[in-house]
Design brief:
Blueprint (H helix, E strand, L loop, with lengths): L12 H4 L7 H4 L31 H11 L6 E4 L1 H13 L6 E4 L6 H8 L3 E4 L10 H7 L4 E7 L11 H10 L3 E5 L21 E6 L12 E4 L2 H10 L7 H11 L2 H22 L5 E4 L6 E6 L2 H10 L5 E2 L9 E5 L3 H15 L1
Bound molecules: pyridoxal-5'-phosphate.
Length: 351
């Protein structure tokens, strides 16, 4: 439990005093349910399915998510992919050329890119060899301008989850915001940190429809946090950041949770088979534990093996330049046939 935390102390001064843009649909909200004549937003009146502006608060999508995840709608913010959500967090809380964030390589590259774009110093603290955060080393980097700590768990590209004790220790001891990126949580046996939101007012959780939900193309990222944090982010988000087509497709998919669960289950079964088969491939020296829909393996010569796979028509991700990932390839779990072809190709190039 964290008791002395006040998020208002972290908000940038200009954001605190900002007067948000009020769109037509903010002023009169009941666009979908009412029989009113809408002459307020300069839209083309002839119906084609998308001639109207979308709901700026995406209330239907949030209602579904609220039920599925058992969390209040007021604790949800949606964005054009997680990447927009993460950018909003930077812009609300990090003062350019003054504040810093802490990231734990090897990890998702966007945190560093967004820090760069927003002119925020990125203090990188390497994970341990077992890809866990090192609490003492992290806390040593913290000063009064450290606004955000990014924890990607399960982590991309290593694939493992951080242990709950370490995450809880960081949530307690770090007095800025802790963003836990749960892009891969649906493939993991670990619990989501969602149920701990009430306990940690500095916790922000991001998820996405891009991986388990199979909707990378519609760009829908989800942020869960205290109502207070969500209110702050809502003040700065572009009014119509999630388009109508995206909202429709998300609603469709979120109302078919059994279909999604089946696909996730099949991917996890395939993951088990792939992990077993990889053990027989002689160019693979190490298979890292995974809670994700990918596995990171260490091979003899990553760049050579990467090129050989390309020549066989298979594209994997070469992570050899990332910290602690020397000679590592990241392999996404595909369809059963794709996985067989990957294994076959790996066996052939190993001969
Ligand atoms: C794929 C991925 C995302 C997803 O980003 P979107 O913008 O929602 O597609 C977020 N975080 C991590 C760690 C990822 O690997």
């Amino acid at each position: 439990m964290k008791t002395t935390f006040n998020v208002q102390n972290l908000v940038r001064a200009n954001i605190k005093t900002l007067k948000p843009y009020a769109s037509a649909r903010d002023e009169y909200k009941d666009a979908t349910t009412s029989e009113m004549i809408f002459l307020d937003a300069n839209e083309n009146p002839f119906e084609n399915g998308v001639n109207r502006y979308p709901d700026p608060q995406q209330r239907s999508v949030k209602e579904l998510l609220s039920t599925i995840k058992n969390i209040d709608s007021e604790q949800i913010l949606l964005g054009n992919g997680s990447d927009e959500v993460l950018d909003l967090i930077f812009r609300a809380f990090c003062e350019p050329n003054q504040d810093n964030i802490i990231t734990l390589p090897p990890t998702y590259g966007m945190y560093a890119v967004l820090a760069n774009i927003n002119a925020i110093e990125n203090r990188a603290v390497l994970l341990t060899k077992g890809f866990q955060p090192e609490v003492a080393a992290i806390l040593k980097e913290v000063d009064e301008n450290s606004k955000i700590l990014f924890l990607c768990s399960p982590n991309n590209p290593s694939g493992n989850s951080f242990t709950a004790e370490i995450v809880e220790d960081l949530l307690t001891k770090f007095n800025g915001l802790v963003v836990i990126d749960e892009a891969y949580i649906d493939f993991s046996e670990q619990n989501s940190w969602l149920e701990k939101l009430a306990q940690f007012p500095n916790l922000i959780i991001t998820q996405t429809l891009s991986k388990a939900y199979g909707l990378a193309g519609i760009r829908l990222g989800v942020c869960y946090a205290s109502e207070e944090i969500i209110k702050i982010l809502n003040r700065i988000k572009p009014p119509y950041n999630v388009n109508e087509l995206t909202q429709q497709r998300a609603l469709e998919r979120l109302s078919k949770t059994a279909v999604v669960a089946n696909e996730v289950s099949e991917i996890k079964q395939q993951r088990t088979l792939v992990l077993k088969a990889l053990k027989t491939v002689s160019c693979i020296q190490r298979i890292h534990p995974t809670d994700c829909n990918f596995v990171m393996v260490q091979v003899d010569h990553a760049t050579a093996r990467y090129k050989q796979l390309i020549a066989k028509g298979i594209v994997v991700r070469n992570r050899t330049t990332q910290a602690l990932c020397e000679n590592c390839l990241r392999l996404t779990i595909g369809t059963p046939l794709e996985n067989q072809q990957l294994i076959q190709a790996l066996i052939e190039i190993s001969l």
